[in-house]
Design goal:
Helix content: 25-40%
Order of helices and strands: EEEHEEHEHHHHEHEHEEHH
Number of strands: 10
Strand order of the largest sheet: 6-7-8-3-9-10
Shape: globular
Number of helices: 10
Radius of gyration: 18 Å
Strand content: 25-35%
C-alpha cells in the first residue's frame, strides 16, 4: 500500500533467551497517529525502540524478521543507523535536553550533519520551536540554558530538536507521563497539529490519552499484538475478549 511508511513483518525480539516480542505484524500509515497500549512489561516500548534501531545498542538483544521503512528492510547489517534516526526521530519518557542553550539544543544535530549556514540554522530553530508550540515562550531567550526550562517546556524542546531534522516519523515513548496535566494538554494539542506532516507512533499507559489523540491503536499483551484497529473500535467494540478485559480494567 502506498500510504504505508513503516511496517513490521514477523518481527521477533529477543533479550538473550527471552522472547520479548513475538511475531509482530503491523503497518503504520503516513500522517497518522498510532497509540501502542498495554500493561507494563508487555513489549510496547521494546517494539517502539526497534523502529529506529535503538535495540542494537542493548547487549544480548537480537531482532529477527523485517522492519520495512518505505519498503526497505532496515534490519540489514549494512544499513546506515544515523540516516535511519535522522528520518525516524525519537523522544523519550523523561525530557533529556542537552546542558547547553536552547538554540544549541536545536542546532546540535544539524551541525553534526554538516549544516553550518547561520540563516539556515536560525530558520530551523524558529520553525521547529513553532511546531513544538514553544517559540512564543523562548524566542527572546534562545541563549538561555535549556536546563532552566520547566519539565513540560523541556519535553517540547526535545520534540523540537527532533523536528529540526525533518523526520518522516516521530516515535514518542510515554512523552507526558512525567508531566502535569497542563503540559500534557499542550503536547497533545501539538500532536494534533503535527500529524498533518508527520507519522507519529506513541507509547502511552494512559488509555484516555490514546482515545483522545490516536487514529489507530494497537494493544500489546505479553509480547504479542493482540489487536490493532481504529481507536474508536478498540475502545468501543474490540474484537478480542482480552482487549475488552484490558480496556475495562479487568486486568493490567
Amino acid at each position: 500500500m502506498e500510504n504505508i511508511i513503516i511496517e513490521s513483518k514477523d518481527l521477533d525480539i529477543y533479550y538473550g533467551d527471552f522472547k520479548a516480542i513475538k511475531s509482530a505484524n503491523i503497518a503504520f500509515e503516513k500522517n497518522s497517529v498510532t497509540a501502542l497500549i498495554g500493561a507494563s512489561g508487555c513489549g510496547k516500548s521494546t517494539f517502539l525502540r526497534s523502529i529506529n534501531l535503538m535495540n542494537r545498542e542493548v547487549k544480548d538483544c537480537r531482532l529477527e524478521g523485517e522492519i520495512l521503512y518505505k519498503g526497505e528492510n532496515i534490519l540489514r547489517e549494512d544499513i546506515d543507523i544515523y540516516d535511519i534516526r535522522k528520518n525516524i526521530g525519537m523522544v523519550f519518557q523523561r525530557p533529556n535536553p542537552f546542558n547547553m542553550s536552547i538554540y544549541d539544543n536545536i542546532t546540535f544535530a544539524l551541525k553534526c550533519h554538516g549544516i553550518k549556514d547561520k540563516t539556515t540554522l536560525d530558520e530551523a530553530v524558529e520553525t521547529s520551536l513553532q511546531q513544538a508550540a514553544l517559540w512564543n515562550d523562548v524566542k527572546d531567550n534562545l541563549k538561555k540554558s535549556a536546563i532552566a526550562l520547566s519539565g513540560g517546556q523541556q519535553q517540547r524542546l526535545c520534540i523540537a530538536r527532533t523536528l529540526a531534522m525533518k523526520p518522516d516519523v516521530i516515535l514518542l515513548d510515554e512523552p507526558t507521563s512525567a508531566l502535569d496535566p497542563i503540559s500534557t494538554s499542550k503536547i497533545e494539542d501539538m500532536i494534533f497539529e503535527l500529524q498533518d506532516n508527520y507519522t507519529i507512533i506513541i507509547v502511552t499507559h494512559n488509555m484516555q490519552q490514546a482515545a483522545r489523540i490516536a487514529d489507530r491503536t494497537a494493544f500489546f499483551h505479553l509480547g504479542e499484538i493482540v489487536e490493532y484497529d481504529r481507536t474508536d473500535i478498540i475502545f468501543s467494540n474490540p474484537a478480542k475478549r482480552k482487549t475488552e478485559d484490558y480496556i475495562t480494567g479487568r486486568f493490567g
